[in-house]
């Protein structure tokens, strides 16, 4: 029987899939929309299957091959037991399925399957460490209750500042004007109407604007970025105090945020060896090998 291995990395902005054969050859990749479980299990499943279908298509394989695939899905929101349980109960089309967090696959990928620590700062924020066979996660509490080093909170803080300028509570700024232009809003009422029910990815899309104006030394943009850097530094020190073999900071805003971290932390950051979706494939292989060894 032909065997395939599928890795999926699902977050608040997009979902990536990678399909390999038994020898480790890349067959196809796929990209779809967000799959954060907190935003809805049906939508997450749809994004996972869209990314998987795209990878199959690139590999010139049909959906009939799904039953030959050993899959590992690392997805945002799986750190919440109730959401992970729902995805584990999925009547999926794969031969086997391992559900874990996006942080777990990122950690495995960042250190090439070895041990270490990682912080993901993208749409959301989380950190984790594997040490002496043990694994634990920190952060990942969501925009409402945490994620102080995330792109979403950078954007949300920029919107809050802009609303205060539109209300006349604080003077306007270049950042506020840029946010108004980006969102196409001229009044506080328009901005609230446009933003109040939006998911984190909506606010994360404003993070590049915040970094742009921070580089230009806009006072408010710098304050927002420095808050995110301090939050990230606190978690980095927590992980580094455990003396991991390697430490990486990855994610959509990592490159922009790193220069604002303390210099000693920057020096301890190592580049990721592999991508999170490659980490997911590695976990799928490990599970299959472990099962085969115990047969």
From TrEMBL:
Gene3D superfamilies xrefs: 3.30.420.40
Coiled-coil blocks: none
InterPro entries, A to Z: ATPase_BadF (IPR002731), ATPase_NBD (IPR043129), Euk-type_GlcNAc_Kinase (IPR052519)
Highest taxon of the lineage: Bacteria
Pfam families per record: BcrAD_BadFG
Domain ATPase BadF/BadG/BcrA/BcrD type: 6-284
Protein name: ATPase BadF/BadG/BcrA/BcrD type domain-containing protein
């Amino acid at each position: 029987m032909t065997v395939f291995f599928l890795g999926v990395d699902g977050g608040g902005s997009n979902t990536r899939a990678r399909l390999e054969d038994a020898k480790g050859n890349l067959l196809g990749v796929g990209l779809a929309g967000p799959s954060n479980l907190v935003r809805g299990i049906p939508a997450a499943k749809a994004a996972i299957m869209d990314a998987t279908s795209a990878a199959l298509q690139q590999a010139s394989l049909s959906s009939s091959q799904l039953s030959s695939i050993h899959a590992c899905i690392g997805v945002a929101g799986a750190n919440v037991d109730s959401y992970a349980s729902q995805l584990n109960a999925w009547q999926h089309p794969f031969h086997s399925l391992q559900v874990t967090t996006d942080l777990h696959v990122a950690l495995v990928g960042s250190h090439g399957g070895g041990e270490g620590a990682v912080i993901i700062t993208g749409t959301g924020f989380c950190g984790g460490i594997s040490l002496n066979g043990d694994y634990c996660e920190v952060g990942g509490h969501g925009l409402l209750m945490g994620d102080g080093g995330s792109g979403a909170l950078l954007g949300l803080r920029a919107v809050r500042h802009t609303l205060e300028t539109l209300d006349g509570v604080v003077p306007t700024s270049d950042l506020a004007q840029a946010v108004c232009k980006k969102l196409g809003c001229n009044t506080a009422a328009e901005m609230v109407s446009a933003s109040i029910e939006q998911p984190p990815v909506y606010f994360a899309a404003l993070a590049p604007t915040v970094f742009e104006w921070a580089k230009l030394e806009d006072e408010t943009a710098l304050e927002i970025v420095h808050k995110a850097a301090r939050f990230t530094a606190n978690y980095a020190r927590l992980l580094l105090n455990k003396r991991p073999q390697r430490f990486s900071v990855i994610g959509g805003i990592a490159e922009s945020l790193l220069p604002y971290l303390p210099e000693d932390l920057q020096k301890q950051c190592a580049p990721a060896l592999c991508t999170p979706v490659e980490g997911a494939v590695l976990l799928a292989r490990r599970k299959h090998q472990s099962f085969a060894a115990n047969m």
